[in-house]
What we know:
Layout: H1 9-29, H2 32-51, E1 65-67, E2 72-82, E3 88-97, E4 104-106, E5 111-119, H3 131-134, E6 137-143, E7 149-156, E8 163-165, E9 172-173, E10 178-182, E11 186-192, E12 197-199, E13 206-207, E14 213-217
Antiparallel strand pairs: 1-14, 2-3, 2-13, 3-11, 4-10, 5-6, 5-9, 6-7, 7-11, 8-10, 12-14
Helix pairs in contact: 1-2
Amino acid sequence: MLPIxxxxxxxxxxxxxxxxxxxILSLLFRxxxxxxxxxxxxxxxxxxxxxxxxxxxxxxxxxDVILSPADGKVIQITEVSENEFFKEKVTRVSIFxxxxxxxxxxxxxxxxxxxxxxxRGSFLPAxxxxxSLENEQTAIGIRDDRGRQIMFTQIAGIIARRIVCELRxxxxxxxxxxxxxxxxxxRADIYFRPEEVELSVKPGDKVQGGxxxxxxxx
Length: 218
């Protein structure tokens, strides 16, 4: 049995309950339409079981590293002007999550949450450049006790319609701990000062949340 995240237990249980109801009805009445709905609900229930899986991860003990906040593929590494937390030019690493990736998000760095923003927005395909600016998202800025800062975002995609984030300003968070998820396809961006961090990934790399090292503070 796959471990299921607490952020999806209700959805998983509900979809399997619907499947069982249709299964019982189709066995009782043998109607083609009930059989079709049974098959569809069974496929959807199986997909939810896979989508909301929550495997354990081996979190590196090194406190100088920035971890990936999500499973997926690095689609872009670029320099951008970040005007809310850093208020300067920084490096942005963008990670695209397909519907087949684990969608539980993990904190990429240990420290205190100094900045939190939730922004309503569009639902453009998450791999598009404009998604970082236009899509519904949360942004979380973290500073550790040595003054080092990172920011990361949870960005909704064309299918995603629900962002879950447990972090708020003043919260303490540890690298690799579960902090939320984005439901059904999404993107995560990580921001940091390029002069402070040596990158450990490149575009095209597959990453795992809470385990893959994105960069190391110099």
